[in-house]
Amino acid sequence: MTTKRLVLVDGNSIAFRAFFAMHNVLDKFKTPEGLHTNAIYAFNSMLNLILNKANPTDMLVAFDAGKVTFRTKMYPQYKGDRPTTPDEFREQLPYIKELLTARGIKSYELANYEADDIIGTMATQAKQQGYEVVIVTGDHDLTQLADDRVTVALTVKGVSDLEFYTPESFKEEMDITPRQLIDLKGLMGDTSDHYPGVSKVGKITALKLLHQYGSIENLYANLGEMKPSRLKDHLIEDKDMAFLCKQLAEINCQAPVTIQLNELHYDGDQREQLIAFYRKLNFRSFLNQMDVPLDPHPAEARAKVDYQPLTVTALKELVQKQQPLSVVIEMLGADYHTEPIIGVAVGNEETILVADHDDILLDDFTKQWLADEQAVKYVFDLKCDLVTLNRYGILFKGATFDALLASYLVDVNDNTNDLGLIAQSYGYSNLLPDMEVYGKGAHVAVPPTERLQEHLANKVAALNYLQKSLPEALKKHDQDQLFDEIELPLSHVLAQMEIDGVKVDTNVLRTMQNDLSGRLAALEAAIYEKAGQKFNINSSKQLSEILFDKMGLKPLKKTKTGYSTSMEVLEKLRDQAPIVDDILNYRQVAKIQSTYVLGLLKAIAPDCRVHTRYLQTLTQTGRLSSVDPNLQNIPARDEGRDIRKAFVPQQAGWQLFSSDYSQIELRVLAHLSGDDNMQQAFREDYDIHAHTAMKIFNLHSVDEVTPNMRRKAKATNFGIVYGISDYGLAKNIGISRKEAAEFINSYFDQYPKVEEYMNEMVKKAREDGYVETIMHRRRYLPDIHARSFPVRSFAERTAMNTPIQGSAADIIKIAMINMEQQLKEQHLQARMLLQVHDELIFEAPQEEIEILAQLVPKVMDSAVTLDVPLKVESAAGRTWFEAKG
DNA sequence: CCGTTCACG
DNA sequence: ACGTACGTGAACGGA
User: Fold this and answer.
1) What pTM value is reported for the model?
2) What is the phi/psi pair of residue A112, to 5°?
3) Could you give the residue range(s) of every CATH 1.20.1060.10 domain in chain A?
4) What class of enzyme is it (predicted)?
5) Phi, psi of A8 (to 5 degrees)
6) Which chain A residues in 839-868 sit with Cβ < 7 A of strand C?
């Protein structure tokens, strides 16, 4: 007989995490009666994951019974200062228990005990009976139960995945045994459970003590021998507290549970009950997984999408009805500059036409219709369609709705770019995700014609559906203007930039390649000689063996997998061994060669240009990103900067021209915060870093500012934009944390409204669940409620940074649209080629450069009106290298 | 397919 | 005390 596997789930912990994992869709997950269902939904997804990954024969979900437990009797403050759970969460708990019943899973709670204790008790009983046990929770405390028969699975990334802890993996991560976790918490306390441990003892000190003494008992037994110190005083003073906290941290494995192991058999769903439950809560996608319609009456169940062959005649007839039509141009891969089209579909609510080829795009009527601005179309990924149709000589016009762009704006967090998944999240569950139809990874292939056509017809139907629901969502977020006047027009601008491409001179790159490969060989030989052996210098693992094991250098930093050999570390080891210098040089040269010289050569199209793709629906802040190749990270400093000499205009007698915003993020901050001092600095066009230095170093004039002061002030300004912490600033400019904290204090003294702004953003994120930019670009921050300090802190910094970075992104996007308009109106030959976040690069005939030098800065600095002026700096030259100010 | 490293703003 | 700066993409090595 196979071993029994008991899965024990910490119900409250998983439910709570489920609630916040889908906090951003709180409004969308609501029954007509007003019951929120997001936590129930996410909890059920988690159940699917657990059942799938842990494959239980027996299962129990344990819940906390109430606030009063044996622990609060021992220590009244236990879990004392927890904020009350939101009503939207509490109302869902009874339904989660109902869901469990329908899924054939027992749930249980016990007065005076926490879910942890039920789990500990059942786990202990079960392993004595020879079960394997898996505990599922979001709470690290339960890892204390891990042993050879008990695995603890912790939720990661909300509730989307599980990480399994065995005693070995626990030991690897914490370097103590699971049981020692109790001692650890006894010493360091637990802020979220609100017990203190020993004063001034944190994780680092506590771990050190445990490595030395093993347990709290043994520590105190040997305390006499410890040298006198602050630490010792605290240990003596807080002895009772240490023992009490250890007791609080220890899970009770002898709780008086009234449930028996043999009641926990898991036998699968109670199908009828579960269907009724899903229907009650409108869980369409779960029903779909069971192949059951939302509507119980088959006659009214969803109709199969009907479609006809897409022919010119059929299209003409359809178009003459003069209705908006959804258009789908399908291809398998992402690179729409070259990827072949595998099908085309067009349609509205009544008629859908589908073809499994691109013949229709060769027809004149079709071309005319696609180019007709008056003929309204709905699409998914407009920029893709624009570039693809351009290959057929078609200037695609009339698209007023792009479902991909719209869903991105509504929630940038949800970074799926699959029409099926997006449609599903808006309640249309008829369309399969592309992956299920086309396969994934190496197995991507065109399916049989009928399946393909059905899929495309479904895409048209999904687009029709989304066109009705997404605009409402945009409106609700006050994002109409962002969509209609920024993102949609920007798609056209970006498409043109991608189509035009930028010319790269292969001769420049080949010459560099010759030089670099020679130097690389020399460095390689020098490194092997100094190491006394050959090895793969590109392997950080092998390199760390050479440096730290063989040569005995001191490792300064750890990574997940070993010792770090990053530049930061190597710079510090530079003086200790000559090999380190060679390695740093090797790394720099190898990077230039492989990523830039060879990488760029590979990306050059037959027209001698590189055509990047700007991803318009990816970043969390509203910036663009650039891929295949990435033209937004071409080296700008040091030796790598020479790469820019290969970027040249497409015609003789032309030049490259570049304009960039000066200090745009700080200017945006000055505007957003309304800080008078900072605004004045920009109005007077002071050197902002020197000005900041003067203020925070308490000087009377900028003349007293030394270069070093300016450097530190500059780093502080950066830190502020990133959502400052003393720790991060200290690390960055090499000062003590205390000094950094003083810096920040005097910074906030000088720019008081900046501090107010930072606090306000965090508060807004907590209250509204999101922050937004000047153009109402929105980012949800569910982690702002996280219990874990690092996770929560990250969300807080994001809350401070996103409106700044995102507003700057809004501004340059507006400038790009206006600029393209100006080039057209003024009949200039100049073309906009690249955008690098705060910089625009053009090419133009020599005689237009003077015009650009006037026009571009004017358009860029008037893109929006802020409370401070925007400043733009420009340069021109025969290559990108020369066109850099 | 993930982790490390390093390029950009 | 707890450990991090914000946002990206590509190459490479090693499971």
Assistant:
1) 0.76
2) 75, -5
3) 503-610
4) transferase
5) -110, 125
6) none
Q: In this predicted structure, what is the pLDDT of residue A538? A: 95
Which nucleotide is closest to the Cα of A632 by its C1'? B8
Return d(Cα A673, Cα A493) in angstroms, integer.
31
- Distance in Å from B6's C1' to A720's CA comes to 24
CA A440 to C1' C15 (Å) is 21
Nucleotide nearest to A200 (CA to C1'): C1
Nucleotides of C under 7 A from a protein CB: 1-14
The CATH classification number of A5-263 equals 3.40.50.1010
Which fold, A619-671+760-885?
Answer: Alpha-Beta Plaits (3.30.70)
- The structure tokens listed for A477 are 């977020």
* DSSP-H helix ranges across A113-266: 115-128, 167-174, 180-188, 203-213, 216-221, 230-237, 239-249
Pick from A468, A463, A471: nearest CA to A378: A463
Distance A838 CA to B8 C1' (A): 11
A454: tokens are: 């059905």
User: What pLDDT score does A299 carry?
Assistant: 35
What CATH fold (topology level) applies to the domain A503-610? Taq DNA Polymerase; Chain T, domain 4 (1.20.1060)
CA A589 to C1' C4 (Å) is 30
| pLDDT value at residue A190 | 86
Q: A331-373, pLDDT tens digit by residue? A: 999 999 999 999 999 999 999 999 999 999 999 999 999 999 9
Query: Among residues A102, A132, A187, A179, which one has the least CA distance to residue A7?
Result: A132
The per-residue pLDDT for A666 is 97
Query: Nearest nucleotide by C1' from A798 CA?
Result: C6
| Residue A650, CB-side half-sphere exposure with 13 Å CA sphere | 16
Percentage above 90 pLDDT, chain A: 73
CA of A737 to C1' of C2 (A): 15
A876: which strand partners?
A: A657
CA angle A664, A670, A674 (to 5 degrees): 150
Nearest 5 degrees, angle CA A495-CA A354-CA A472? 60
- Please provide the average confidence, as pLDDT, over all residues in chain A: 92
Q: Of all nucleotides in the shown strands, which has a C1' nearest the CA of A626?
A: C9
Distance of alpha carbon A419 from its chain centroid, rounded? 20
Instruction: Tell me if the bond preceding A555 is cis, omega within 30° of 0.
Output: no
Q: Where in chain A is the domain with CATH 3.30.70.370?
A: 619-671+760-885
Q: How far apart are CA A871 and CA A811, in angstroms?
A: 12
Lookup: nucleotide whose C1' is closest to A731 CA = C5
Q: Is strand C within 7 Å of residue A188 (CB)?
A: yes
Within A235-340, strands assigned E span 308-309, 325-331
Tokens 């009377």 -> residue:
A700
Q: Which residue's CA lies closest to nucleotide B9 at its C1' atom?
A: A837
Q: Taking 70 as the threshold, does the pLDDT of residue A165 lie above it?
A: yes
Interatomic separation, CA of residue A341 and C1' of nucleotide C6, rounded (Å): 38
pLDDT at A543 over 50: yes
The mean per-residue pLDDT over the stretch A829-855 comes to 98
**Secondary element (H or E) of residue A655:** strand A654-661
3-state SS class at A327: strand
Predicted local distance difference test score (pLDDT) of residue A450: 94
CATH topology assigned to domain A308-501? Nucleotidyltransferase; domain 5 (3.30.420)
- CA–C1' span, A539 to C14, in Å? 9
Q: How confident is the model at residue A34 (pLDDT cuts 50, 70, 90)?
A: confident
* Cβ neighbours for A602, distance < 8 A, ≥ 6 positions apart: none
Nearest nucleotide to the CA of A808, by C1', is: B9
Q: In strand B, which positions have an atom below 7 A from any protein CB?
A: 1, 3-9
Counting beta carbons within 10 angstroms of the beta carbon of residue A347, is it exposed (0 to 12), middle (13 to 18) or buried (19 or more)? buried
